[in-house]
Design goal:
Blueprint (H helix, E strand, L loop, with lengths): L5 E4 L3 E5 L5 E6 L2 E4 L4 E5 L2 H18 L6 E4 L4 E5 L2 E2 L2 E8 L2 H7 L6 E11 L8 E2 L1 H6 L5 H23 L3 E15 L2 E7 L7 E5 L9 H4 L5 H12 L4 H5 L7 E3 L1
Antiparallel strand pairs: 1-2, 2-3, 3-7, 4-5, 5-15, 6-7, 8-12, 9-10, 9-12, 10-11, 12-13, 12-14
């Protein structure tokens, strides 16, 4: 599929005009960032793996009735998706205390939560994606009350589905980030799950060993980033053949 005009470049993806009106080509980069891009690096081959994992998860969610922006994967690094206006919120669903929650509340990392918690952050890198309340969302018009209800309900349903998917392959879903977008059609506005679901946007721990299988390996200088991403893809049955065939030769993580 020929590439068209670039319309946006983020930390992990580049967006191009799609082949038809209302579509976008989403290109997955190998760039890795943490702490709002204060730490930068590259994990060679990450984009290919994240493309495959995200395609797989979105396909399952679509089959379970969750509307998403995903249309199809077009090659190793690109997806065709529906064009949306992103709601300026990052939705964090937490099953276990970890990361910023542990630091913010002084709760030991790994503490199970009695119920899943949905948090909202303002999607603004310059401000550090600050944690906000539902009242902020409504007061500043970042989403309507109906959209917020739909986002919360969908996020919890995605959590239920994904928790089952990963438990079945020996991975505990600790927490994850979602984004939603408004898709405009002749029939009105449809709220769609957008962005990606991958080890970049989720915390995955091995159920038996509690080994981290996600971007925390990059954030915390643990090493083994490539192997962790590949292990998630392998267990899901979507590890790219070239990575599997040469045992990941030539694929490496580089920090900056």
């Amino acid at each position: 599929m020929s590439r068209r005009r670039q319309i946006y470049e983020g930390k992990a993806k580049i967006l191009y005009e799609g082949p038809e009106p209302g579509t976008i080509i989403q290109y997955f980069k190998d760039d890795a960032t943490a702490f709002n891009a204060q730490k930068k690096g590259s994990i060679s081959g990450k984009g290919v793996i994240n493309n495959r994992i995200s395609e797989h998860i979105y396909g399952i969610l679509e089959g379970m009735g969750i509307p998403t922006h995903f249309i199809k994967r077009v090659n190793m690094r690109e997806q065709l998706v529906k064009k949306v206006d992103i709601v300026p919120l990052e939705i964090i669903v937490r099953n276990v205390a970890a990361g910023s929650m542990s630091k913010r509340l002084g709760i030991e990392e790994g503490t199970p939560l009695s119920r899943a918690i949905v948090e909202f952050c303002l999607k603004d890198d310059a401000l550090g994606d600050p944690l906000i309340a539902e009242e902020h969302v409504l007061a500043f018009g970042w989403a309507s009350e109906e959209e917020l209800d739909e986002i919360t309900a969908t996020a919890l349903r995605v959590n239920d589905i994904m928790s089952g998917i990963f438990a079945a392959i020996g991975i505990k879903l600790i927490d994850f980030k979602l984004e939603f977008g408004r898709h405009y059609t002749d029939d009105g506005i449809e709220l769609l799950l957008a962005d990606e679901i991958s080890p970049d946007s989720c915390r995955f721990w091995d159920i038996k060993t509690m080994e981290k299988l996600d971007k925390d390996r990059f954030r915390r200088d643990l090493g083994g980033e490539v192997e962790a991403y590949q292990e998630v893809a392998r267990r899901l049955g979507v590890l790219p053949e070239e990575a599997e065939g040469n045992n990941g030769a030539g694929i490496k993580a580089v920090g900056k």
